[in-house]
Amino acid sequence: MFDVIIVGGGPTGMMLAGELRLHGVHVVVLERDTKPPVIVRSLGLHVRSIEVMDQRGLLERFLANGQQYRIGGYFAGISKPWPDGMDTAHGYILGIPQTSTERLLAEHATEAGAEIRRGSELVGLSQDEDSVTAELADGTRLRSRYLVGCDGGRSTVRSLLGVDFPGEPTRYETLLGVMELTAAPEEVTAVMTEVRKTQLRFGAGPVGDGDGLYRVVVPAAGVAEDRATPPTFEEFQQQLRVTAGTDFGAHSPRWLSRFGDATRLAERYRVGRVLLAGDAAHVHPPLGGQGLNLGIQDAFNLGWKLAAELVGWAPSGLLDSYQAERHPVAAAVLENTRAQTELIALDSGPQAVRRLIAELMDFEEVNRYLIEKVTAISVRYDFGEGHHLLGRRLRDVELKQGRLYGLMHRGHGMLLDQTGRLSAAGWGDRVDHVVDVSTELDVPALLLRPDGHVAWVGDDQEELRAHLQRWFGAAVV
Fold this sequence. Notes:
By secondary structure, the chain is of the alpha+beta class. It has 3 domains: 2-167 and 264-374, FAD/NAD(P)-binding domain (3-Layer(bba) Sandwich); 173-260, 2-Layer Sandwich (Alpha-Beta Plaits); 398-472, Glutaredoxin. The chain has 12 helices and 24 strands. The chain has helices at 11-21, 47-55, 59-64, 98-112, 156-161, 185-195, 233-244, 291-311, 321-343, 348-360, 364-374, 461-472; strands at residues 2-7, 27-31, 44-45, 67-69, 93-95, 115-118, 122-127, 132-136, 141-149, 167-168, 173-180, 203-206, 213-219, 251-260, 263-265, 270-271, 274-276, 282-283, 398-399, 402-403, 413-417, 431-435, 445-448, 454-457. Strands 1, 2, 6, 7, 8, 9, 16 and 17 form an 8-stranded mixed β-sheet that branches. It has a 4-stranded antiparallel β-sheet with strand order 12-13-11-14. A 4-stranded mixed β-sheet has the order 22-21-23-24, covered by helices on one side. Strand 23 (445-448) and strand 24 (454-457) form a beta hairpin. Helix 1 (11-21) runs parallel beside helix 8 (291-311) and helix 8 packs antiparallel against helix 9 (321-343). The protein starts with a strand and ends in a 5-residue tail after the last helix.
């Protein structure tokens, strides 16, 4: 029997597998497709996801496969400068295709000891007080102590659980594909620049090394009855001509797909021993490029909590805090993508509001606020009243021993003690006690959870013990 079955081998599932393996959890990832995907839906990692990779020692791999950008336009495509003074040591966007992100996370999960089974399609599941049974299309049955559905917006796991997925249906559909264009790059750029002055749902960018291969997005003529069916190439060409006045001599499509602007949020993230993460728990328009990042961050929140439950030290309610913390974050993303959808509409009313928002973004505070929302570094979990850092993730800071994130690769909690007088004795298997100082921190000590969020600030040993028990369970005597 496995400890955890993960259904879905995308970025969320692979990130979760790697997190669980840090704690010795026996994991299998079931992926329906027999081969890794070729469709590039996401083009990059936002600040918080970059920090996540740094906290686990993976960032160098990602940097080697991507490109750093400090450009604006991430909120409704409104072009403003990248804000200065963001609360991070990683003030950039990392351009990297989703296929590379999935590959790197799969390699990490495999290196950590996770088992990945491709061509394994879930068709049924049942659970009792002690385990979950997964039934596969080939008749195989697998048992585990927990199961996590990371299987996308049309999640089989969510459907089998009967979890409601309320929200707003698709109103606008967009076509996405990779194909060759015979038009000169200068022509493509010129047409795109002109069209995007009004139509932000259109774009064409090279994905090869000067070989004419482009990733193209264009508004669809309407909403398809069966959105799971990809568009025809003729449909794609026609929409290019309608939108851009030319199809750029498009030919030899590598793949074609479609996506909508529906916003839906699962009512529950947990039913007994089965949980949901990533797009299985929430779907929204791709504006701001938040979807893949939101799923990775779900996995980062859930991984250590589920591992604690399995290993046996989780305090009461820790696993349920996954939904308590991540459900509101997803709801906020749905809200900001709804707002962005309105701001790119071509009607006169939305365009007037767009112009007003653009003026407000000339104020540095407004620009920074919106970008920090999209990049998820403004997320603050509700840990109650207290210091302004409480509930927030702590940025990477310089210590005498090196950088903070370099000390977090094992996935433990951390007592960062600038007083040298505190103790985490009894929790040494779960919490690293780091006695060090940083000129960037004006606090005596911090207790960090394994996901880097600040669980306590202070210098009182008894207060510290109470918070160690709250987040890391009973001390080992």
